[in-house]
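Quick one:
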Amino acid sequence: MTEILIIITLILIFRYAWKHPEQEENSSDDDVIID
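Output:
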């Protein structure tokens, strides 16, 4: 049971991280603009 919860949590984290890579790119662009 515990392993299943861990797997589900990992999947959710990966899905969330997958949807937000664009934000990191935007952040990076902002840093470049500031420089």
